[in-house]
Design brief:
The structure is a homotetramer of 374-residue chains.
Chain A: E1 4-9, H1 17-27, E2 31-37, H2 42-52, E3 56-57, H3 61-70, E4 77-80, H4 84-95, E5 100-103, H5 111-122, E6 128-130, H6 138-148, E7 155-163, H7 174-179, H8 182-185, H9 190-206, E8 210-218, E9 229-236, E10 241-247, E11 258-263, E12 266-271, E13 277-282, E14 287-291, H10 299-303, H11 315-335, H12 348-366, E15 372-373
Parallel strand pairs in A: 1-2, 1-4, 2-3, 4-5, 5-6, 7-10
Antiparallel strand pairs in A: 7-11, 8-9, 8-15, 9-10, 11-12, 12-13, 13-14
Chain lengths: 374, 374, 374, 374
């Protein structure tokens, strides 16, 4: 099969996530990166594009969208990996020209933008894929499959957390700078950058959604304009309750996303930093360590695995699974057929829920952590 | 030194914690158990006392208090290990007769009783020791010492949790029965039985107290009269924030008390089920695994250790440390001297705080998790 | 039941293991320490005895044996906790007077002494209990029970290791000094002090014995007279093969005894520093974490447990289990009845095997690690 | 930079390692796979090549070597991923035509072939890269760098092991079949397939080589023609001693390569299944957990890392690092310049050492585990 021609918006020289997207798009050989508008200024964009050896480099995303849409061999999909406040503006240009969008999270920096982006996606024939990449990990798929199969019974309690420590002190480099600027990142700090991942993961695995939440946001580093620590209580549809903790000021935590789900008949526990393991306890039996590809690991995990058990797959592979799912969906779309029912990726709707989560956290916190609806 | 003569109230044949107290009192050879009123009925009390070979067995705690106070070689201290609602009534009888009290937690089943017990203790010359036994673990002492020494800087975030799974389903045996009966256990279920431990541990290690909390209590098992899962947000004096989770319906968790404390310059992490380890991360340096008695383990831990590093001490030893601290305090008291400044044990005041914590959780939860003062 | 009257030989002020024996003898309340010859000189012995408040203190073990045997209320058992070279001489005096012996490991410092001690024990009516204390851990009992029940099929491979790091450099304090003196410790260094534990554990769990071994002993610290690191290959009866590693020069290992046993249908893994866990893998199924007292933990572990799962028992409790087994055997002996079939403790025969193991290691190593019979 | 044009020998539809090589070659975008002779029969080779969409598919490796060497845009490098006995025959054809070879391990199935391959490589201008992929892990590079820098002092003890469980029972699928056939795999079973990895890793990290070894090989599964478990004692140059255990019959071990290195002043521990962690203990200080990219992680690890700490890199990334090092070397070679001094990959000489290791194991075991020189 021919590779899908891919463009990229953002992801210039000094960005972190752009490079991840590029590797992720390449690993399973479904995409070929051929065009880019990689930075917010034409000069930087050109420099970054040349460094990558891209065939076509643009000054800005709009001219890229216009021209690529007209090219016979123009891009079929675009990855948007800019700071959050650009997502909507950029995505809109491609969606309306029928170019599929693979967009980094959170969906947008404001709820208003998120709603507009949903509309833009709905009125486009093109697909919209959001890279809540942690849903790409095989053992996260495994957990979801087990909950769905009733392996732990009706869900009662969800404990999800995403602590980091890199913002324990004031940081001035680029990654820190825009992520703590509400104009670019959105009103949420830790809630937007990592809390949305945690919330998405909880929903993805349990199949539930929060109906209301109470959030106590804090900013511990003086002068910071957004939260760097968030304590959130959640009430899910169906009666399950949850806690969510996101923090960027917890020394000793690099990227410690972790989820624990407890149901009427069992429990599941997973940690991002050791992603090939899933703990499963059927109530009244010993705890079991299910490994990716090992005994007890099922079809949902198998679909997104590459190598045998004991050979750890990591963050990049999980991320790549989102790209491979996107490729499957795009190819089905191009062939006019429905994608395989197993194809799973985060949608614009999931993105809206994430932004609504941040919005609710901020609203709640502003009202002294009162319960607010999502 | 002669052993301190000890009596026991509660702790009959089918109790769990009574046996723990007996071993804990024996391990360092400071106490000799010589009298008991071990059960709520005279028959059971006698049967249990005979099974233990106690020299003096009583029908009830009151007659025991009266008679032992008169004996020349009567008990000098008493352990109260009954269900919670008996603590105050029993403790009062011994306190007013100058017999030192070592009492299980939570202090009482009601806040009113707790306040009365504080008064009873204050008007007595005798000591009152509460067995929040987790404060006896060497690495908990280590953590407290490190926070006090400024090793992690000013505390910002406290994450404490105490999940168990034994009440995932309806249980009818004795331990479960009284613990889920508000008349005997108090208005809190998981909050009272284990949440108080978690809250006490957070305060003990950080030296902070919560000023207000918001609690969302749940009862997942149908027909249960008290909470079996609790989500609590905490605001500490000085600006630190915390989350506390207690649960008895989390399959795969046996007795998984765990605390993480993050300050401006470092983090500490400790888990009860692996108690000889303390993780310490100075921000910007690799995580360090401090072991009981190993390099980096200081004086506070050493005081309450018995054996070299690598030889795990457990729950019983931690519990015994409370007894040994009590012995040191009792002997100092008997000699008319101040106890060594290092002697540390939970007091009736700590007990009151615990009951106030439960009371606040229930009040908050009844008001839809509104913030309430402690 | 009245406590068994216990004496102690060795274990004076500056000893480590004497204190452990004393706590272990006390924890389950089966013994009362009433006499001692605690040191190699009369003065030190008296000072140590007085510090402990012992009713009867002796200048040396022989006078203690003679006098206690004559006393109406004399000791019924004696703990021998001296350096190794004294074990035989001391034990002999008590055995021949019908006083039960609980002796620290290794059995003796020489194979000749070990054989004589076996004879002494055989010709005595008294019991001989060797404190290979790691066999007292509940999850070690569990592992043995599972192997015996066929849960992992016929044993193929045994990997056992016991690394420490305290002798990484030259040490001059008392514990190090006699342990590295062949006249007192025996010809083995790490092999004798900890290798015997590892070998005993392997035999205890698997029910097998080594028929031959090849050992490569090293002494890394200059001037040391005994091995401080040992690599041993083992061939067990029935065809199983094993490796044993003991080391006192492995930085980062405090007391890291660990065993892994693999059979035709499953595997078991246990580590002394985390003793409440046993990993069990039935081939083709997920790994299971069996916890002391938790689901899957059976009768053999339960017999020697005190508290519920999740409440860690440690080294002292495991050690105490040997004492409690000894008490059960002594009481049965005193009553003229057979002890309960479940009563299990290391015997003088096990001790002989341990000394033979050391002897074989030294013989093999002297012949360039040739295979030698045990 | 233009991608290096790559061919592949072996790695057809039902192979495991071929797919790994293909992903590994793609991840950092240095290679483009353009030709292949993917199977031992022309039909299968064609089918596999078409499935992969390869531009040029050949019936056999020889015709591929001949033709590609003549093409103007022919392959510049070839990956050889066949069963072991084909390595030499295939490599020879490409080496002699100046095509760089990236070859799977072990180097060959016989020592004679290995020696011939060394000569072939020496007389060729082309590079030879052996995929002992575990040396590509960042934290393995970190360990090597630390040993070299003297962070643990002079090495004394090396414990390396590589247990698996997939051959616990007789297996008949293709991967098992050729790996247990001495004609294709070589005289070693577990020693050849995984023992060579373990031995290579020990040498890579310590910078040492074994001078002699004593090996006790076993075949536990009836009818199997090669060892499935091996116990090996090692004596390294400079006086360090080691143990190596390889096994394919250890239930509960998926791919549990693990190494521990102890020196005069510290210890290092690393496990392949959790590859982003390296434990470092400076003697007398707490154990430190160094994470890939985290504090304490140095330049050697950084060179081969892609993403920030806390985002686990896995087996594929480690494997890809070998490819990226190969690319750097090839490009330097093509430009006529020396490669950067930091470029590091396993060579044909390392491969010879691996085959010599297997040969020595078999020789030693045949002589009842006598010491043999390497």
């Amino acid at each position: 099969m021919a590779r899908i021609k891919l463009g990229m918006v953002g992801g210039g020289n000094d960005a972190f996530i752009g490079g991840v997207h590029r590797i992720a798009s390449r690993i399973d050989d479904h995409f070929e990166l051929v065009a880019g508008a990689l930075s917010s200024t034409p000069e930087k964009s050109r420099a970054s594009g040349e460094a990558l050896g891209l065939p076509r480099v643009y000054d800005d995303f709009k001219s890229m969208a216009i021209r690529e849409a007209r090219l016979k061999e123009g891009i079929e999909a675009v990855s948007i990996v800019t700071p959050n406040h650009v997502h909507y503006k950029a995505a809109r240009e491609f969606l309306k020209r029928g170019i599929h969008v693979i967009c980094d999270k959170p969906l947008t920096s404001t709820l208003a933008d998120a709603k507009k982006l949903v509309k833009a996606a709905e009125s486009s024939d093109a697909l919209f894929v959001l890279t809540h990449n942690y849903t790409g990990y095989p053992m996260v798929r495994q957990a979801r499959e087990m909950v769905e199969s009733g392996d732990i019974g009706k869900v009662r309690v969800v404990q999800v957390e995403y602590p980091q420590d890199w913002l324990t002190v004031q940081q001035d480099f680029k990654q820190a700078e825009w992520r703590t600027d509400p104009a670019r990142s959105g009103a949420g700090g830790s809630t937007g950058d990592i809390g949305t991942h945690a919330y998405n993961l909880a929903c993805f695995i349990t199949g539930l959604e929060a109906e209301e939440l109470a959030a106590d946001l804090q900013t511990f580093v003086q002068g910071r304009q957004v939260d760097d620590n968030a304590h959130v209580m959640l009430r899910f549809s169906g009666g399950a309750r949850g806690m969510l903790w996101s923090s960027q000021v917890a020394p000793g935590n690099e990227n410690a996303l972790r989820i624990r789900v407890y149901g009427e008949t069992g429990g599941l526990e997973w940690a991002q930093e050791d992603p090939n393991y899933l703990w499963h306890t059927p109530f009244g039996e010993p705890k079991r360590l299910i490994t990716r590809g090992g005994p007890g690991s099922g079809a949902a995990a198998e679909r997104v695995s590459r190598i045998p058990p004991g050979h750890p797959e990591g963050y990049i592979e999980g991320f790549a699974n989102i790209y491979s799912e996107a490729a499957a969906a795009i190819r089905a779309h191009q062939s006019g057929q429905a994608a395989d029912a197993a194809v799973t990726f985060p949608t614009v709707g999931d993105g809206l829920k994430g932004v609504a989560f941040v919005d609710a956290c901020v609203r709640s916190s502003n009202r002294n952590a009162a319960w607010v609806k999502l």
